[in-house]
Backbone:
């Protein structure tokens, strides 16, 4: 009896080892530290969804000084998280990267303003100090300057502590929809968010970028990763518990209260699943064309730039 039991244990271990060997290794590079915005990836990892799709996924954290698209172009990772604007701008530099899915249907970037300051649209920012990170200058800022009569002289270096913004009630600062309310509460500031989406900013965010080489050589892996991540985001929206536990393990600085706040905003604002038949992870030609036109209007991309090389709908059609 003991010999039979021992044989069964050995056979089970061998079977598990063989199953693990059959999984395709995949490395996903995030653009920031682990947080609730990336909940779909962590849900897919924590709940075995990637393994179900035949993948052995390693999720790597990003950071402020990390050039993740450089890592992608060098072949150090299989996928990176981007935005449709970032992908278009890098593609314009001749780097052969391609967006294969978008897990935020809208860019969560906001402008934080004080209540009672009389700022209800970007046009109301004229003549006021605004704290912006450098990335904004190659993102929405050129377009908003053009459309709303703003000026570079208004811009001050971004302060991630928001102390400068807190002290000047006439000022504004770049924010992020899934963080703003949590930060305002902790700082004791009566403020509100101007979501750039509501003022004509249409790009996708949390895009999944790969190289042309990866798409050509490993199309089944790309398809499996897109499908598994979409399933992970569905699971996350249903119940974030397992994902939040893995996020906190990966990034101990992420507080559960902050993660829960981001999760609630993600659901209530439809960032991942806006409804109306839009599939999680999906993209459309129309939205990419609209994003290109915004960048062309602001002079960031030439009118004859072939923006269609920056994305493919091949892997989202079956979601």
Residues:
């Amino acid at each position: 009896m003991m010999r039979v039991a021992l044989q069964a244990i050995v056979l089970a271990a061998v079977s598990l080892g063989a199953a693990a060997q059959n999984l395709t290794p995949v490395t996903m590079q995030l653009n920031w530290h682990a947080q609730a915005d990336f909940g779909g990836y962590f849900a897919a990892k924590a709940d075995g969804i990637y393994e179900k799709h035949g993948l052995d996924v390693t999720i790597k954290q990003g950071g402020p000084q990390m050039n993740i698209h450089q890592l992608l172009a060098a072949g150090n990772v299989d996928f990176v998280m981007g935005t449709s604007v970032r992908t278009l701008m890098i593609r314009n530099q001749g780097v052969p990267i391609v967006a294969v899915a978008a897990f935020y249907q809208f860019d969560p970037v906001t402008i934080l303003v004080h209540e009672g300051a009389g700022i209800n649209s970007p046009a109301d920012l004229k003549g006021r100090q605004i704290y912006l990170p450098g990335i904004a200058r190659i993102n929405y800022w050129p377009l908003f300057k053009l459309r709303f009569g703003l000026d570079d002289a208004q811009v001050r270096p971004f302060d991630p502590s928001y102390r400068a913004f807190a002290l000047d009630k006439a000022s504004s600062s770049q924010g992020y929809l899934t963080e703003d309310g949590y930060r305002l509460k902790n700082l004791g500031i009566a403020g509100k968010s101007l979501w750039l989406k509501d003022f004509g900013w249409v790009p996708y965010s949390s895009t999944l970028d790969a190289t042309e080489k990866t798409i050509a050589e490993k199309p089944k892996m790309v398809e499996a990763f897109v499908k598994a991540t979409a399933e992970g985001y569905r699971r996350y929206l249903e119940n974030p518990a397992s994902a939040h536990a893995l996020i906190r393990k990966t990034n101990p600085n992420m507080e559960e209260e902050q993660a829960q706040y981001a999760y609630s905003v993600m659901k209530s604002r439809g960032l991942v699943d806006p409804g109306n038949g839009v599939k999680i992870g999906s993209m459309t030609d129309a939205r990419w064309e609209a994003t290109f036109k915004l960048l062309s209007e602001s002079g960031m991309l030439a009118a004859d730039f072939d923006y269609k090389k920056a994305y493919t709908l091949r892997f989202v059609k079956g979601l």
Remarks:
- The chain has two domains: 2-106+203-310, 109-199.
